[in-house]
Amino acid sequence: MRRVMFTYFTSDPSSKALCSPMLLSTFSHFSLFHMAANMYVLWSFSSSIVSLLGCEQFLAVYLSAGVISTFVSYVAKMATGRFEPSLGASGAIMTVLAAVCTKMPEAKLAIIFLPMFTFTAGNALKAIIAFDTAGLALGWRLFDHAAHLGGALFGMWYVTHGHELIWKNREPLVKAWHEMRTKNTGKGGGGRSN
Q1: How far apart (Å, rounded) are the C-alpha atoms in residues 5 and 130?
Q2: 164: exposed, middle or buried (C-beta count within 10 Å: 0-12, 13-18, 19+)?
Q3: DSSP assigned state of 84
Q4: pLDDT recorded at residue 194
Q5: Which residue intervals of the chain are DSSP H helices?
Q6: Closest Cα to residue 32, out of 40, 24, 20?
Q7: Domain boundaries, the chain
Q8: Degrees (nearest 5) of the Cα angle 88, 148, 138?
């Protein structure tokens, strides 16, 4: 049985931060190799995703992707009766990969150990989605295929539709959040004033 190297923390049941285990799982890995592979992919695609989205939007998308892919993994594991840890790190990395491959489908990619074989980013994304779909359908336990699919689908959706729906319309949400925090601070609700 594999040992979880970096695991997420469980939240206090009375805590208002119900998503904290899913958020913290964004930084969880099964092993040093798992972490090294994820960090290599993130390093490889980070300049492209930051140039597409900007630093702030990238951070928001990355953290959201970790929560969403962990949730998808939880749902898939509950449906199949497999009760193993769900780690959102790979799902968040898949979001980055899928977002870049969706926006730049003709970009040439290669595998680190086989640099002589190149392929387009669009074909790589199709192959990854097919592999993870097969893994989920056939019950493979090689990777958390549900988290990978959740992350990939979120990345594809975000760069095609989510940016327009969410990021460009964030000002009213930020203003409402600020007003809510200011109102809670005035009532002694524990909020912090800036």
Answers
A1: 28
A2: exposed
A3: -
A4: 44
A5: 20-24, 32-53, 55-80, 89-103, 121-138, 145-157, 163-165, 170-186
A6: 40
A7: 1-182
A8: 125
Structural tokens at position 42: 């993130």
CB-based contact 191:179 (threshold 8 Å): no
64 assigned to active site: no
Q: Is 62 within 8 Å of 95 (Cβ atoms)?
A: yes
> Which of 24, 158, 1, 19 minimizes the C-alpha distance to 87?
24
Q: Which residues pair with 109 in a beta bridge?
A: 119
Say what the pLDDT of residue 17 is.
53
**90, 145, 161, 163: the active-site residue:** 90
Question: Which single residue is written with the structure tokens 């669009």?
Answer: 122
| CA–CA distance, 174 with 19 (Å, rounded to integer) | 19
Q: What is the pLDDT of residue 10?
A: 42
How many CA atoms are closer than 13 Å to the CA of 75, on its beta-carbon side? Answer: 10
29 is catalytic: no
Instruction: List the one residue out of 111, 113, 93, 104 whose CA is nearest residue 154.
Output: 93
> What six digits make up the tokens of 139?
């019950």
pLDDT along the chain (194 residues), means of 10: 41 51 70 84 91 90 90 88 78 94 93 84 95 90 88 95 82 82 66 46
What is the 8-class DSSP label of residue 6?
B
CATH 3.40.50 is the classification of domain 1-182: no
> Residues 105, 120: contact at Cβ < 8 Å?
yes
